């Protein structure tokens, strides 16, 4: 959830807007707003792009969350990568619909056991009524692709056109899937949103960049952000908070990413164990920073 995300206060409002749509799409549909097809998170390594994607999926209470890497689709044989992209989106929709149907059954009090009972075996005592499902939240699946540059590198970079049939077919299949809108046999819509992360957005193909309605830069945390990140990770350890000057520690960690700060807290815990201390002190944190 967003409570696990610290040091990204500048970009959280834009991310919360996306979550708000996924939670209550009817208000946006009444004004003719369409769901975002994709969200691209770009920035230096370790700044929290993956953590932010997981927080979006958790806050939105999506029906399916699939995680993969761009290198998972790189194959030697032509057609393999495109087939993997099709399978990924197909499985995401299938899982989303299954979980969506289960949630609707629980809300309506019509949950059926899994050992063979059907609707005709259960007497609810109520007359079945046809309900209008137009106002219901559609089934939602979020696909997170890390290291997108391994999959969607530009086909003409620095004026040089590169030709790779396998990579081109894989990229074209991803573009097709992101453009598609699918429904099941009961006309329950499935919203599939792709969240991707990359450290080098300038090498991505222009066609894939156009599919991402939101392109969010995830920067290094500022002084206040570093202090909040240190506190978040220190809260998971036996740290003596009252004796630690968090402002001073934040000043001693310029250009540290969220991943670096997490490692600082972990190294401080190891140093405390090595020294026989029962708590993490400020000296341990300062020593971990200087390692």
TrEMBL record:
Tell me the lineage of the source organism.
Eukaryota, Sar, Stramenopiles, Ochrophyta, Bacillariophyta
Q: Which PROSITE patterns match?
A: AAA
Does this entry carry the keyword Membrane?
Answer: no
Q: Write down the species.
A: Fragilariopsis cylindrus CCMP1102
What GO CC annotations are associated with the protein? plasma membrane
- Which PANTHER family did the record assign? ATP-DEPENDENT ZINC METALLOPROTEASE YME1L1 (PTHR23076:SF97), METALLOPROTEASE M41 FTSH (PTHR23076)
Which key words tag this protein in UniProt?
Answer: ATP-binding, Hydrolase, Metal-binding, Metalloprotease, Nucleotide-binding, Protease, Zinc
Q: Which cofactor does it need?
A: Zn(2+)
Q: Which family does it belong to?
A: Belongs to the AAA ATPase family.
- Mind telling me what this protein is named? AAA ATPase
Which terms under GO biological process does the entry name? protein catabolic process; proteolysis
Is this entry keyworded Hydrolase? yes
């Amino acid at each position: 959830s967003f409570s696990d995300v610290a040091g990204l206060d500048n970009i959280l409002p834009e991310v919360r807007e996306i979550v708000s749509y996924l939670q209550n799409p009817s208000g946006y549909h009444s004004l003719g707003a369409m769901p975002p097809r994709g969200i691209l998170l770009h920035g230096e390594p370790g700044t929290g792009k993956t953590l932010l994607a997981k927080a979006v999926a958790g806050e939105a209470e999506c029906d399916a969350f699939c995680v993969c890497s761009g290198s998972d689709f790189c194959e030697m044989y032509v057609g393999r990568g495109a087939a993997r992209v099709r399978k990924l989106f197909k499985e995401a929709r299938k899982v989303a619909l299954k979980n969506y149907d289960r949630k609707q059954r629980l809300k309506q009090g019509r949950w059926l056991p899994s050992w063979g009972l059907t609707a005709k075996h259960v007497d609810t005592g109520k007359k079945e009524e046809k309900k209008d499902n137009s106002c219901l939240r559609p089934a939602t699946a979020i696909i997170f692709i890390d290291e997108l540059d391994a999959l969607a590198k530009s086909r003409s970079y620095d004026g040089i056109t590169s030709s790779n049939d396998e990579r081109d077919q894989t990229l074209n299949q991803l573009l097709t899937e992101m453009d598609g809108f699918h429904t099941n046999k009961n006309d329950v819509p499935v919203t599939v949103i792709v969240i991707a992360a990359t450290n080098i957005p300038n090498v991505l193909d222009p066609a894939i960049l156009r599919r991402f309605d939101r392109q969010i830069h995830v920067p290094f945390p500022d002084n206040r952000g570093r202090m909040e990140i240190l506190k978040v990770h220190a809260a998971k350890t036996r740290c003596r908070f009252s004796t630690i000057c968090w402002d001073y520690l934040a000043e001693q960690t310029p250009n540290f990413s969220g991943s670096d700060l997490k490692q600082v807290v972990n190294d401080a815990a190891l140093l405390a164990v090595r020294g026989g201390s029962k708590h993490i002190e400020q000296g341990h944190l300062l020593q971990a920073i200087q390692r």
